[in-house]
TrEMBL record:
Predominant localisation class: membrane
SUPFAM superfamilies the UniProt entry points to: Multidrug efflux transporter AcrB transmembrane domain
Biological source species: Solirubrobacter phytolaccae
PROSITE patterns: SSD
PANTHER family for this protein: MEMBRANE PROTEIN MJ1562-RELATED, MEMBRANE PROTEIN SCO6666-RELATED
Any one GO cellular component localisation term in the record: plasma membrane
Name of the featured protein: MMPL family transporter
Membrane topology: Multi-pass membrane protein
Entry's localization field: Cell membrane
This protein's UniProt keywords: Cell membrane, Membrane, Transmembrane, Transmembrane helix
Family designation: Belongs to the resistance-nodulation-cell division (RND) (TC 2.A.6) family. MmpL subfamily.
Membrane spanning stretches: 168-188, 195-213, 219-237, 258-282, 294-318, 354-372, 497-516, 523-544, 564-585, 606-628
SSD domain ranges (all copies): 203-317
């Protein structure tokens, strides 16, 4: 693979104008196609085969005009404190709301006992992904003036697109880190430029795909987040290798090609592990999670392609101007009168490896403890920022009707006596109200609405749903609604978590065994990965569920974690953790293969790669942390989880625990049975084969002198 990538590097140098032009033309073509065929995005979470989804399908079949699969919204009216709503104005507004295009129906207004607060529920004839400003603006206009305060929830709320403040801040921090690392603005700008081009191509591809299949808006954010982070990191690894080689006297064209073959091999390996882990999300059986995984994997594939073609082309355009500034090699670090922070750190770790590894394991184990009490669910309007109309609508309904009115349950009763069923449910704990059964003419089916006493995300409401499902009624009773859907999705995620983790761990063992031709190195890597996952879960539970420090990052309301988060953390952090494992340990392996003692290999390998890995980790953390700023609770929790996960994995696991364990293992770390050594392929991710090959100028590059200086 290294030789193939080296040849690709030479091609990108010779045909740099063609490579750059192809990327730019491809972007323009993708933009045109995306504009012509793009669709809309949805935030609906459906899991086929669950009880809540079967209930919705039954309603849709029995009452096609009910639009049970359509979007729902709520408009809340409130008079000033101590006053009552004007009934005539309220009824007039509801009548106008029912006439809004794509609104199938608006329920008669339900008014609180004191007459100050009322709400109407809207049923749309179109799915949520098709509701846009056309409908929400008309809804706002229809409700305007009916009360002192009018708020909107669900699909009725007009959601303003937030400016990409977080993304911009993440890029700015990345620019600062790169500038400090390389001591050159030009060198700092190249990884950012290639990453942004790659992300642009990925986003346009997702826009185009949205016209073909249903995609969630979270898919876009996750793909952008990962594409930007790994795009910068992968370009950084190739650029740093190139600058080091030129500093050691290699010609520009040969250095670019060699960097593409050596660091590029590690990029392909690391990118492949991330993509495989993300595509494996398909095995969870949840369409929205599979969509997110495939979209993100596509974005990473583009980042890898950009690193192997666009980066070498731009390096060729830049020539010697790009290699001015700082270089960081093991030799440079060794000759420096003042040892670097990385050199001092690894010396401390190697001096007391038992203490270092013990402290990391104990600290991460303690941080993981809150994960034992994790609760999973889906966000609702009560999770929104207090300043948003959706949160204010939620709070007004809670004030006027009780918090349970924000999460009513719908029961589908088939056969038996629905009135007896309703009467039995009335006697259950945590039930605030039960409507009389609405029997469907000509169908042996009735609908019953249940208002819990607790909110949709509370344990009491979850217990109520489970009690209804466990109770034997006269006939079959299916439960749907927000809480029921939360339970079904969470159970689906929980049941797929262990199998998915097993697949990811098995994949990691296999790939790392092939990459490093060792048994113990993969085992230490997996142990560190599991510690990272457990500690990351614990940190997220501590902040988003228990509320410790929640106000510091703008968490509107604590509650259950987003159901998809644990699986996402495993998939994404696994792939990114393997990045740092590969780039750190491959350097140690390279030193050991070249004759260094096991201890010297750990020390010199760490010193030769610590700076670039530190820079890469800081960049990735800054990109992920930028996504904590938006109000969207899903995006906020994902950004926080990824940022904390990389912080833990890069600095505590890969740069502390792994060197300590490698020191303790010594030469045994690289042991592999001979029979197994003969069976597994040699990937040569360090590119040692091409580094040991006789150095000679590439014929097409050498003709007429260096093409770099001819620009």
């Amino acid at each position: 693979m290294a030789r193939l990538l080296q040849r690709l590097g030479y091609f990108s140098v010779r045909r740099r104008r063609l490579v750059l032009g192809t990327w730019l033309i491809g972007l323009v073509a993708l933009a045109g196609l995306a504009m012509a065929f793009k669709g809309t995005f949805s935030d609906e979470f459906k899991v086929p085969g669950t009880e809540s989804q079967r209930a919705i399908e039954l309603i849709e079949q029995a009452v096609p005009q009910s639009n049970a699969d359509g979007a729902t919204g709520r408009v809340v009216f409130a008079a000033a404190k101590g006053e009552q709503l004007d009934a005539a104005a309220l009824n007039g507004a509801v009548k106008q709301l029912a006439a809004v295009p794509d609104v199938a129906s608006a329920t008669p207004p339900i008014t609180s006992e004191d007459g100050r607060i009322a709400y109407t529920d809207l049923q749309f004839s179109i799915p949520q992904m098709e509701v846009d400003a056309t409908q929400t603006d008309a809804i706002e206009k229809a409700a305007d003036g009916a009360a002192t305060q009018v708020e909107f929830g669900g699909a009725a709320a007009h959601v303003e697109s937030e400016p990409p403040v977080g993304e911009v801040l993440g890029v700015l921090v990345a620019m600062v880190v790169l500038a400090i690392t390389f001591g050159s603005l030009l060198a700092a700008g190249l990884p950012l430029l290639t990453a942004l081009i790659g992300v642009g191509a990925g986003m346009l591809g997702i826009q185009l795909a949205s016209g073909i299949t249903d995609l969630t808006s979270t898919s876009v954010t996750l793909a952008a987040m990962l594409g930007l982070a790994v795009g910068i990191d992968y370009a950084l690894f190739i650029l740093s290798r190139h600058r080091t080689q030129v500093h050691d006297g290699m010609s520009i064209p040969d250095s670019i090609a060699l960097a593409a073959g050596t660091a590029g091999s590690a990029v392909v390996f690391a990118g492949s592990t991330v993509m495989i882990a993300l595509v494996a999300l398909v095995m969870t059986g949840t369409p929205f999670l599979a969509q997110m995984g495939i979209a993100a994997a596509g974005s990473i594939a583009i980042a890898v392609l950009a690193s192997l073609t666009l980066v070498p082309a731009l390096l060729a355009f830049a020539g010697h101007r790009l290699v001015r500034g700082k270089t960081f090699t093991a030799a440079a670090a060794a000759s420096d009168a003042k040892p670097t922070l990385g050199a001092r750190w690894v010396a401390i770790v190697m001096r007391r490896p038992v203490v270092a590894s013990g402290l990391v394991i104990v600290a991460l184990g303690a941080l993981a403890i809150p994960a034992l009490n994790v609760r999973l669910g889906l966000p609702n309007d009560g999770s929104s920022n207090p300043d948003t109309t959706t949160r204010q609508a939620y709070d007004l309904v809670s004030e006027g009707f009780g918090v349970g009115a924000n999460g009513q349950l719908t029961l589908v009763a088939q056969g038996g006596d629905p009135k007896a069923t309703a009467a039995a449910i009335t006697k259950l704990p945590d039930v605030a109200a039960v409507t009389p059964p609405q029997e469907i003419p000509g169908k042996d089916l009735a609908l019953i609405s249940v208002t819990p006493s607790s909110g949709p995300s509370s344990e009491a409401t979850e217990n109520l749903v489970n009690t209804i499902r466990d109770t034997r009624f006269d006939g079959e009773v299916l439960v749907t609604g927000q809480t029921a859907t939360n339970i079904d999705v969470s159970q689906k995620m929980s049941s797929s978590l262990i199998p998915y983790l097993a697949v990811v761990v098995g994949l990691a063992l296999l790939l790392l065994m092939v990459a490093f031709r060792s048994i113990l190195v993969p085992l230490t890597a997996i142990g560190g990965f599991l510690l990272t996952i457990a500690a990351s879960f614990g940190a997220v539970v501590l902040v988003f569920q228990e509320g410790v420090g929640a106000e510091l990052i703008g968490v509107g309301q604590t509650g259950p974690l987003v159901s998809l988060l644990p699986v996402l953390i495993i998939g994404v952090i696994f792939g990114l953790a393997m990045d740092y494992q590969v780039f750190l340990v491959s350097k140690m392996h390279e030193e050991f293969a070249h004759g260094a003692s096991a201890r010297d290999a750990v020390r010199d390998g760490f010193r030769g790669s610590a700076r670039v890995v530190t820079a890469a980790a800081l960049i990735m953390i800054s990109v992920f942390a930028g996504f904590i700023l938006p109000d969207d609770p899903i995006i906020k929790s994902i950004g926080f989880a990824f940022a904390v996960g990389i912080l833990i994995d890069a600095f505590l696991v890969r740069m502390t625990l792994i060197p300590a364990l490698m020191t303790l293992l010594g030469a045994r770390a690289w042991w592999l049975p001979r029979w197994l050594d003969r069976l597994i392929p040699n990937l040569d991710i360090e590119g040692t084969a091409i580094e040991r090959a006789p150095k000679k100028a590439h014929p097409r590059v050498a003709e007429g002198g260096s093409p770099i200086t001819a620009l």
